[in-house]
Specification:
The protein is mainly β. Helix content is 0%, strand content 48%. The chain has no helices and eight strands. It is globular.
Length: 108
């Protein structure tokens, strides 16, 4: 069996007109996703309201999450947060001049 290794900080798309989402691994219970932002935020209207919990970490760059209760959490490289299922949130800021690379794990 041949196994390929990958680097989450490489193969970043040059054209980031939209936030980039890539499912790395998963099954019915768990999804692991790489997200790349450069100045992207969530749409003004609406919130992420997910049926699964989300553990998210910033691998490179920085970003801010705003929660429905008004709490704002800034995450720098190496920092992570666990967001319970149905905890409404959105991305309110990412660095405009550098990629922010997120690693998100969605689980039941």
């Amino acid at each position: 069996m041949h196994l390929d290794k990958h680097n989450l900080l490489q193969a970043i798309p040059v054209n980031l007109n939209d936030e980039f989402f890539e499912v790395i691994a998963g099954n019915d219970d768990v999804k692991i996703e790489r997200i790349v932002s450069r100045g992207h935020t969530s749409p003004d209207e609406g919130w992420y309201d997910q049926a699964q919990h989300e553990w998210v970490m910033v691998l490179k760059g920085a970003g801010e999450l705003t929660f429905e209760n008004g709490q704002v959490v800034r995450l720098l490289a190496g920092e992570h947060i666990n967001i319970p299922a149905h905890c409404k949130h959105k991305v309110s800021w990412t660095q405009p001049d550098e990629e922010t690379v997120w690693l998100a794990v969605f689980y039941s």
